[in-house]
Amino acid sequence: VQLVESGGGLVQAGGSLRLSCAASGFTSDNYIIGWFRQAPGKEREGVATIAPGGGTNYGDSVKGRFTISRDNAKSTVYLLMNNLQPEDTAVYYCKGGNNYWGQGTQVTVSS
Fold first, then answer.
1. What gap in Å lies between CA 18 and CA 68, rounded to an integer?
2. Cα 48 to Cα 78: distance, rounded to the nearest angstrom
3. Half-sphere exposure of 79 toward its Cβ, with a 13 Å CA cutoff?
4. What is the DSSP letter of 72?
5. What b-and-e string marks burial along 23-55, b requiring 16 or more CB atoms within 10 Å of the CB?
6. How far apart are CA 83 and CA 64, in angstroms?
7. What is the distance between the alpha carbons of residues 82 and 67, in angstroms, rounded to a whole number?
8. Of all helices (H) and strands (E), which one includes residue 33?
9. Burial class of 62 by CB neighbour count within 10 A (0 to 12, 13 to 18, 19+)
10. What is the structure's pLDDT at 17?
11. C-alpha closest to that of 49 among 97, 102, 94
12. Plot region of 30 (φ>0 → left; ψ -120 to 50 → alpha; else → beta)
């Protein structure tokens, strides 16, 4: 079982990034997949989740700016992040299946 995040990087405030979470080793389209993030010195927080049927939920701090989606044919979940702000700087992780976590991808937003 593996979850692999990609797409992180350095972006200026107001910019956009799209993160990907590629799943393998389990039938990811049967599970809720979530994106979480952890900034230095802070607890890990939920960003967004997407259910097998496509229902979504977002953390208050990202509503209206981030969009989660999934492509079941590719076993991949995406997180489109628009209007990024310095406070969005964190390591972003995806989680799915029976509590499987990816290794994380760094997102850094400069002011």
1. 10
2. 10
3. 33
4. G
5. beebebbebbbbbbbeeeeeeeeebbbbeeeee
6. 9
7. 8
8. strand 33-38
9. buried
10. 98
11. 94
12. alpha
Q: What are the residues facing 75 on neighbouring strands?
A: none
State how far the Cα of 111 lies from the Cα of 38, in Å rounded to an integer: 19
Token pair belonging to 42: 């802070």
64 conformational bin, left if phi > 0, alpha if psi -120 to 50, beta if neither? left
Are 69 and 92 contacting, i.e. CB atoms less than 8 angstroms apart? no
**Contacting residues for 64 by C-beta, under 8 A, at least 6 apart:** none
Length of the chain, please? 111
Q: In the block, which residue shows the tokens 């990087």?
A: 9
Token code pair at residue 56? 């979504």
Per-residue pLDDT for the chain (111 aa), expressed as one digit of tens each? 899 999 999 999 999 999 999 999 888 888 999 999 999 999 999 999 999 999 999 999 999 999 999 999 999 999 999 999 999 999 999 999 889 999 999 999 999
